[in-house]
Every structure is written in C-alpha cells, then in structure tokens.
Amino acid sequence: MKNKITFTMIKPDAVENGYIGLILDKIIKSGFNIRAMKMINLSVTQAEKFYGIHKNKPFFRELINFMTRSPIIVSVIEKKNAVEDFRKLIGPTDPSKAKEGTIRKLYANSVGENAIHGSDSNENALLESLFHFSKSEIFNK
Ligand code: DAT
Ligand code: MG
After folding, report:
1. What is the Rg, in whole angstroms, of the alpha carbon atoms belonging to the chain?
2. Which amino acids bring their CB within 6 angstroms of ligand 1?
3. pTM
4. Beta bridge partners of 34
5. Which positions of the chain have pLDDT values less than 50?
6. Across-strand partners of 118?
7. Distance between CA atoms of 98 and 50, rounded to whole angstroms?
8. Residue with the nearest Cα to atom 14 of ligand 1?
9. DSSP letter string over the chain?
10. Rounded CA gap, 115 and 1, in Å?
11. Burial class (CB in 10 A: 0-12, 13-18, 19+), 67
C-alpha cells in the first residue's frame, strides 16, 4: 500500500444531527479511500483508554460522557499524506476557529462536541486503527 492511513470517528453529535452521509461524501470527494468502517457504541472503558492521554484534563469526564452517549462511526481511510491532509480537512479542535469548508466549520457546534476525530500522527493513526480493527480488516484488501 503506497498510500498512508489515518483513523477517523464521526462523533455522537454529528451522528445524532444526521450528518453521517454529508461527512462521508466530503471525505470521499476529498480523495480519501475507505479501507474499513463500522458503527459502534463506545464503552466507557474503551473511551477512557482511547482518550487516555487527556485523563488529567478538566474536560476528561465531559469528553467520556459525550463519546459514549450514542453511536459513532469509526473508520480507517487512506490517501497520500493522509494524516496531515485529513487534519486540514476537519479543521482545528475549536470549530469557531475553523476555516470555511472544513468539516468542523460545517458540522460542529463547540470544542467539546466537534463532530469528527482525525489522528494527529502516523504512529497514532496505526494505534487508533488497530484499537477498532484487525490488521487483516485494514490491510488485506
Ligand atoms: P483534536 O480532537 O482536535 O485532536 P485534542 O486531541 O486536543 O483535539 O482533544 C481531544 C478531544 O477532547 C477534542 O476533540 C474535544 C475534547 N476537548 C479538547 N479540548 C477541550 C476543551 N478545552 N474543552 C472541552 N473539550 C475539549
Ligand atoms: Mg487529538
């Protein structure tokens, strides 16, 4: 596979607001290929592990409550320069600072409920992908 992968989650707010289709359309039209995808309910244990790096932050409980309150879409996507290009496509953590046309500008309402996740490095992209999918689900295609 000559392209790089990144990992994304369409978060509870975006799923609740009916944005799954619009967000996936934007991702695909931006040149990403979907390698693996499923809808799941994140358990509290899974959410605490996934966001373990933030466990001492004041917003940690709010983040775990949010991420576990309704279903999410988890997906591994590929493209040349996937991690960096996808972070550009989604925009910054705070949607009020996001540029026109980015997914967070279009579909997110607040820092805490910001519609979508994108991995921040190639290393985390692989770790986060393997958190939800087996190697063969991602690479044997
Ligand atoms: P990103 O999702 O842009 O990588 P992050 O890794 O710094 O941002 O934080 C992970 C998530 O935690 C973020 O998407 C939403 C939540 N979060 C971050 N900062 C927050 C804050 N100041 N208040 C509430 N939630 C916050
Ligand atoms: Mg992050």
Report:
1. 14
2. 54, 59, 62-63, 93, 111-112, 114, 117, 120
3. 0.97
4. 77
5. none
6. 8
7. 24
8. 93
9. --SEEEEEEE-HHHHHTT-HHHHHHHHHHTT-EEEEEEEEPPPHHHHHHHTGGGTTSTTHHHHHHHHTSS-EEEEEEEETTHHHHHHHHH--SSGGGPPTTSHHHHH--SSSS-SEEE-SSHHHHHHHHHHHS-HHHHH--
10. 29
11. buried
58-78 pLDDT tens trace: 999 999 999 999 999 999 999
Here the tokens at position 52 are 């373990």
Q: How far is CA 11 from CA 25, 42, 73, 81, 92, in A?
A: 16, 10, 7, 23, 15
Distance 111 CA to ligand 2 centre (A): 12
